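Morning run. Coffee first, then this:
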Amino acid sequence: MKKTSFIMCAVSVFLLAGGLPAAGAEATAGADIVSAYVWRGITFNDGFVVQPYVDVSANNFAINVWGNYDIDDYNDILEEHEFSEIDLTLSYTLPMEWADITVGHIEYLFPNGGAGTSEVFLSAWVSPLANFSMGIDAYYDYDEVDDYYVAAALAYDIALDNGLGLGASASAGYAGNNFSLGPDSGLHEYTLRVNAAYPVLKSMDLTAFLAYTDTLDDDVLPDQDENLFGGVGFSWNF
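And here it is:
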């Protein structure tokens, strides 16, 4: 099933990518050097990682390829200096003015072993005030996990006259029983984050972020190895 799922996702990405240049596609490539790999409050590596990505979008469709390259081995759990995860995302944003609503599919691949899995998601965001936004992201893993994860967030972003962009956000997650690492479903984790981006070239930004995350219920998400993490990187638009 995993092989078939991967092939279907890869074919979809290939077909979409083939049609994007003629449709006036926009693309972004970048990479972040991060002090730890933390995903939805869960520590996957408490040491340094590199996370490259590519985004291509046109006509409200988008594809994203993202990877995690482990510099450290996380107490010999991981192979250092290898990719431990590659994610493929295909999404579509509805053409609406009052809200940003996106639906999509994510394929999680683990090159060094472990069962990959697949999620579908719905993301809905609104901006009730200038520079402020709020939204809900809902995910359902229909493959290995067979359960859901939902996150609600508030964000503030501002662009200064010198081109410097600053942002801050707060989010909280809720996990179903199969997604939970503990015995219960419920409130999973919260995350506070600040970020910045500065244009150093016409099409290139330097980026940085700092985040703090912690469990909301030990019976849903037990204490993790890493709470405070951050990174620096770049993004290139072309």
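DSSP finds one helix and 14 strands in the chain. Good start to the day.
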